[in-house]
Amino acid sequence: MDKRYEHMETAVIHEGYDSKHHLGSLATPIFQTSTFTFETAEQGENRFAGKEDGYIYSRLGNPTVRALEERIAHLEGGEAGLAFSSGMAAVSAVLISLTKANDHILCSPGLYGCTFGFLQMLREKYKISHDFCEMSNEQQIREMIRPETACIYVETPINPTMKMIDLALVARVAKENNIPVVVDNTFATPYLQRPLELGCDIVLHSATKYICGHGDVIAGLVVGKKEFISSMAMTTQKDIGGTISPFDAWLLLRGLKTLHVRMDRHSENAAKIFQELKQHPMIEAIYYPGDIAHPDYHITEKQLKQGGGLISFEIKGSKEDIQRFLNELKLIKIAVSLGDAETLIQHPATMTHSVVPEPARWKMGITNQLVRLSIGLESWQDIWADLDQAISKLTVKKV
Ligand code: LCS
Fold this sequence. Notes:
With 399 residues, the protein is an alpha/beta fold. It is built from 15 helices and twelve strands. The strands form two sheets. The chain has a seven-stranded mixed sheet, sandwiched between helices. A five-stranded mixed sheet has the order 8-9-12-11-10, with helices on one face. Helix 8 links the parallel strand 5 and strand 6. Helix 1 runs antiparallel to helix 3 and helix 11 (259-278) runs parallel beside helix 15. The radius of gyration is 22 Å and the shape is globular. The site of ligand LCS has 19 residues, from helix 4 and helix 5.
């Protein structure tokens, strides 16, 4: 793919689409069609045989979807992209593509609950095992790589504990062993973190989150080498079928145009809320990559452009106290998902990570006191006022 726009602020708006090929339409047209007609039977034959370029059927490719795939590939600095109907469709397609029965996957010490669930399924049905590794030093990673390790799979920042993984370090060890590194870049987006530039091989997203930014789409994206993406398009995507709809691709193209502006504001708001929360006497622990006292801050400094829009924290009290706190919130909505204009809060132990058995959850650092806050684009003062009033209700009732 030609690199046309060096600056991300321009690329998020223009990359992958040129109005001059579409009757001057400024917005990318929505090709809301399931299939594409062939002028002749021979043309159909040639397209199926790969001898002629052109669209066939929207599960195999669609111009609106193609624009999105080119844009995300450019933003991540990769050769090619592929869009899916959900983040989990992207996660599962990548892992199925990279593994076969009896292989092994080395994972970051925490993962989104459904990714954890999918790994259990791989183990039970196909004997594809996995281990969790802190990924904090090269020797430890080397020791956990086995001859049958097919890939290293990491989230960073990790959902929901915000732990940072040093991607350059992981990529270095993986290269020595000729193993691809897959990075779930959902929490950071390419605006804050660019794993391929650090030596990783495949990036994926739950595009449902910041890429969309408006809480109205479920989608996934994958970026990597052309060969890998083409083979996924013709196997795990074509035959399993987690294809995105053209309309959802269009909504993502629209959302992407403001990615940089939104991420700046999410990060600024989160930094303000962090300052308030960290000095509150009811807050027991707080996890935010932009915290200079965070043990992973040295990684944040070199790898993340800004702290991002997510903060997790533990409140003093029982699980019931935490639920009472959530119920007192007025502006902030209790909801899973993240990266939307609205500030959202959720309780990982009973929501996003409830599928993870308790001992594994504790190992991941997910206690019953932990809540995850996705800071929206409202005024930070209003967000803080809502948090403060809900926390103070807890204090009053406890006394
Ligand atoms: N990867 C990460 C890091 C995620 O946070 C999620 C969803 C997925 C993959 C799967 O994406 P989906 O299929 O939902 O588009 N995370 C969610 C969360 O934290 N709250 O609700 C969903």
